[in-house]
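From the methods appendix. Each design record in this collection lists the tokenized structure first, followed by the designed amino acid sequence. Records were kept in a plain field format so they could be parsed without special tools. The example shown here is representative of the layout used throughout.

RECORD:
FOLD TOKENS (529 positions):
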């Protein structure tokens, strides 16, 4: 999929145009956009810019597309390395629609029931998802008094969704006045509250409070600190469902990669961008680690936003606002991820399981604030073979288990603590939902925050870039238009609207709204300052 745009034609593709003028015809005259990073945000930005008529080159240090959505294979077992939960599939559909294609022709999504199974320390469980009546029946089984409270929570979540997602998630927040305009709505919705504060207002049962406040962890936040804007996830799941892509999330990455290839997007893998080249206050290209320079009319960074501003752009070239955000940044937790197969099957285990330990608030405080690696833990267990048996050899299962841990701001020697944590996790799963695991586990390997720092250049090895605090949301988050540098734009978890698959896909929509069509650049119409 590597193309040299000095000689390669645009493969006959005529870009989406915002004028009645003929489509761009000569490669030499077509403005060039370089996308740094091939995560979902970078891929989405590349496709959107290609649809606007740009020549596009995507560069990534990994050997596969997808960023954290890599695919690992060991001894016949396949693992999605990163995201496994697909919500808001219409955001993927939009990318194919740009080129007159259908997402469903390339990827098969299947709805899951339940969406998640919560397993509590006392052996009880709660199946969340399916129809509203099924969810209400499960809530009533645990706490009949919370049935009506959940309906009120869902209604409040819808109000947050209507503002936070429908109106704001794909809108630029690079102007302070943009933030000022929405403050009254955020105040009415009490978005100063945390997710935990929101949930406990509506639910009384401690188990249900935990189950319905856990969602911020999926985007790197502590429910006791994360703004209740993220309470919109409840309604997002209810309105649009929770899905699994047959073949895994990697099937989506492959489909997007094939779409880029069909439409003439150049891709360079195994290449690391060392820095953004800046001349006269504007991004003019990128410099690779090997010294090669690739010129560009604009640059889209899908690198970790904090890494961009610490290592790829000199501080002297940055605006005061980005320097301030960087100096005051709070980061998401780290992740310890154990990938493994089993030589037996576990048909009673759900596709997605949230395994909760005895402590909740105290554990999260140790992870996020005290930066302590505790003896206990809570876990997310992914069993893709529950839906797609192709992930493992016959008679076997494929799993990964994700354990939130402190990021690298903690003093933890992962070469020592990683194997010890692995043993505690395997023992805990063995005595609860995966009996016999210790004897049947096979083809295992793991990732620690050290790997996130090395592989993805994530500052402090954080699993989700900067944390989703209110003071790090919307205008207060790293802007999608680089602060102080023209023609440099940001997508991905560390910028608006935030982490998670829907968030990074929406960040590309924000950039799409900012960047003019290619023919406007040819007419030398300037970018907005």
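DESIGN:
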């Amino acid at each position: 999929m590597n193309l040299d745009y000095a000689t390669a034609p645009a493969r006959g593709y005529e870009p989406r145009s915002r004028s009645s003028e003929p489509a761009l015809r000569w490669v030499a005259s077509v403005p060039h956009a370089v996308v740094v990073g091939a995560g979902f945000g970078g891929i989405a930005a590349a496709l959107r810019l290609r649809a606007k008529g740009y020549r596009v080159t995507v560069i990534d240090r990994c050997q596969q597309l997808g960023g954290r959505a890599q695919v690992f294979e060991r001894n016949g077992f396949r693992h999605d390395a990163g995201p496994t939960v697909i919500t808001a599939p219409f955001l993927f559909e939009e990318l194919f629609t740009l080129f007159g294609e259908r997402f469903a022709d390339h990827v098969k999504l299947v709805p899951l029931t339940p969406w998640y199974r919560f397993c509590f320390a006392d052996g009880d469980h709660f199946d969340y998802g399916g129809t509203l009546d099924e969810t209400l029946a499960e809530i009533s089984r645990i706490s009949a008094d919370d049935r009506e409270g959940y309906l009120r929570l869902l209604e409040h979540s819808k109000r947050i969704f209507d503002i936070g997602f429908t109106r704001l998630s794909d809108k630029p927040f690079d102007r302070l006045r943009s933030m000022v305009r929405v403050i009254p709505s955020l105040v009415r919705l009490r978005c100063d509250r945390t997710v935990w504060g929101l949930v406990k207002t509506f639910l009384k049962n401690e188990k249900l409070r935990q189950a319905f406040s856990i969602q911020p962890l999926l985007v790197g936040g502590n429910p006791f600190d994360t703004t209740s804007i993220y309470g919109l996830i409840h309604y997002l799941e209810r309105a649009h469902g929770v899905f699994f892509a047959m073949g895994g999330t990697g099937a989506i990455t492959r489909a997007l990669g094939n779409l880029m290839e069909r439409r003439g997007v150049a891709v360079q893998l195994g290449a690391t961008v060392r820095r953004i080249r800046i001349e006269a206050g504007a991004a003019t290209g990128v410099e690779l680690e090997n010294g090669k320079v690739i010129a560009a009319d604009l640059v889209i960074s899908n690198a970790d936003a904090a890494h961009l501003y610490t290592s790829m752009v000199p501080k002297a070239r940055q605006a005061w606002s980005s320097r301030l955000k960087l100096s005051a940044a709070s980061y998401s937790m780290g992740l310890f991820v154990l990938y493994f197969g089993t030589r037996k099957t576990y048909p009673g285990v759900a596709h997605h399981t949230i395994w909760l330990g005895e402590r909740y608030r105290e554990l999260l405080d140790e992870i996020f604030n005290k930066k302590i690696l505790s003896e206990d833990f809570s876990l997310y267990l992914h069993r893709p073979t529950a839906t797609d048996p192709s992930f493992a050899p016959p008679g076997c299962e494929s799993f990964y288990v994700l354990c939130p841990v402190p990021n690298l701001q903690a003093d933890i020697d992962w070469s020592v603590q990683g194997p010890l944590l692995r043993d505690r996790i395997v023992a805990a799963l063995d005595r609860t939902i995966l009996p016999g695991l210790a004897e049947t586990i096979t083809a295992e390997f793991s990732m620690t925050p050290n790997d996130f720092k090395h592989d993805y250049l994530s500052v402090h090895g954080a699993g989700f870039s900067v944390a989703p605090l209110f003071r790090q949301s919307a205008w207060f988050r790293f802007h999608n238009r680089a602060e102080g540098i023209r023609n440099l734009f940001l997508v991905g978890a560390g910028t608006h609207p935030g982490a998670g698959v829907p968030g990074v896909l929406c960040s590309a929509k924000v950039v799409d709204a900012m960047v003019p069509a290619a023919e406007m650049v040819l007419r030398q119409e300037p970018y907005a300052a």
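APPENDIX NOTE: The first strand starts at residue 32 and ends at 36.
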